[in-house]
Amino acid sequence: MTLAAGMQWDLLPPLSVRSSEVLASGRLEPAYEIAGDAFDYALNRRVLEAAVFDGMGHGVESTLMTTLAMGAYRHARRINEPPARVYAAISEAVSSHYDGDAFVTAVLGRLDLDDGSMEWVCAGHPTPLLLRDQRVARVLDCVPSLPLGLGGECRQVAVEKLEPGDSVLFFTDGVIEGRSPEGEEFGTERLARTWEQEWASERPPEEVLRRVVQAVSVFCAGRLRDDATLLQLCWYGPTQGR
User: Fold this and answer.
1) Would you state the torsion angle of the CA atoms of residues 221, 67, 159, 169, taken in this order, to the nearest 10 degrees?
2) CA 226 to CA 56: how far, in whole Å?
């Protein structure tokens, strides 16, 4: 493992966390040249907070940038800042250190465990998928804000009301931009189909996610050009916990 890879893995939380109402699980498949992906989540009182990051560039510099963004995220989260303020705090931390010459893309989410309402912010990042009744219902919508570190304001805090049994999949561009040896892109539609197929197998959610990441790696013949990261949130409902 390279220095950048070791630093990157040290950033990550455990690969899954669960309560009777919710499960969060993440997977990261690093490229041969580490590209600064990371994910994070935490259960705080009656809220699950989660985020996916993708730092610009490759190697140690990219990992250092993501480390800074992750530290700012955790600090803002721990003092219970709302999503728009979390966005602003991370962006300010990255901007003050890199003077607007570097950025981190991200999705920041906050899920209320009692009613299933999920607030989320998109910072120049691919938008997540919603799975309902084991089918991908749609791509979630949010007005994108500028990537973190470029000095913009949070343009929208989107709200999605989940139903018991719904799952949400966050992912980095390394997943959908992965290419086969023939140059074909993995793409969002293929990701949605793969996720659906794995859910239909009725395997545990953590195994579903592992197999989706494996499918991306196999499609790319094991040679990813960019880190591929997935973060899955499964809300079971306040009275239908597992």
Assistant:
1) 20
2) 11
| Distance from C-alpha of 11 to C-alpha of 3, rounded to nearest angstrom | 13
Asked whether the beta carbons of 56 and 104 are under 8 A apart, the reply is yes
Domain annotation for the chain: domains and CATH numbers? 3-235 (3.60.40.10)
Alpha carbon distance 192, 34 (integer Å): 25
Q: Could you tell me the pTM of the whole model? A: 0.92
pLDDT in tens, the chain (242 residues): 678 778 888 889 999 999 999 999 999 887 556 668 899 999 988 999 999 999 988 888 888 999 999 999 999 999 999 999 999 999 999 999 999 889 999 999 999 999 999 999 999 999 999 999 989 999 999 999 999 999 889 999 999 999 999 999 999 998 999 999 999 999 999 999 999 999 999 899 999 999 999 999 999 988 887 888 999 999 999 865 44
Contact 55, 71 (CB under 8 A): no
Can you point out the beta strands (E) in 59-182?
Answer: 104-112, 117-123, 129-132, 135-139, 158-161, 167-171
Q: Mention every residue, 6+ apart, whose C-beta is less than 8 A from residue 61.
A: none
Residue 223 tokens read as 């040679």
